[in-house]
Structures are given as structure tokens and as C-alpha cells.
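User: I'll paste a sequence; please echo it back and then give the predicted structure.

Assistant: Echoing your sequence first, then the prediction.
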Amino acid sequence: MTTENKEQSDDSSDSLAKRGTLAATALALGAGATAGTAAAQDDEDVVVVFEDDYRPDADFDVVSELEPETKEDVLSDSGATDDVFDDPDDWDAYIIKYDLDTDAPAWGLLFTEDIALEAGDSETMGEDGAFRDSRLDMIEAEL
């Protein structure tokens, strides 16, 4: 096998693994992924997370709220400033830590518009997740 064939094989394996992960996520979300934004729920009752941070029915603790400037940087760098949130200034961002009974911590980012959270609060996301923006892998769910 030449180096070129091996690289193609490795790329194919990586591609298959990525497609499998995407398919599993879409299935877990009720196959609600579309090319654009899913039908938005009432923003007052939802949180928004990146796909990797969506763990339905897993308890999490709020670690800290992000400063407004840091939140703006995260949203800007992700491309979500204009595409995902009507008015990003109305949203708060939090660092969360999932309770997964593992040695390594599982951290994530969570965005809310009207749900007031504080450091130390414990919550759980429901299984009602839907892509808010599938291109950016952002999911909305109820607590």
C-alpha cells in the first residue's frame, strides 16, 4: 500500500466515523436536523448549547457566568452572533460541568435568554433537543 493509498484510507475512516457521529446525533434529536434553523421554541423556556455540550438527562452544575465580553467573543468566533440569536445582548452564557461519574471533568457552554442561573445551581437538559442551527451545531433544549 502506498503512502497516498494509506492516507486516503485514513481519510475515509475518519469520514465514516464523523458521518456515524452526525447520524447518531440527528437520530437522538429526533432527526430534526435541517439545512437551516429548526422551528424555534419560545426562547424564554430554552437553553442553547453546542452539539458536544448537549447531554440530555445528565445533571450539570453551573460553574460560572461568562463576562459579557467573553460571551461576545465566543459567539463571534463561532459565527453565531447574527445567525442563532435575535439579539445576542439579551443572552447570558455559563460554564457548566456535567456529573458523569468520571475522573475527568466534562465542561460545556450554555446560553440562556430568560432563565436566571447562578454558580452552584444544578439543572438537567431534557430529551427535547432540536437543532437551532445545524450548520453551527447549536442545539436548543428545555431545562
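The first strand starts at residue 46 and ends at 50. Residues 3-28 form the longest helix (26 residues).
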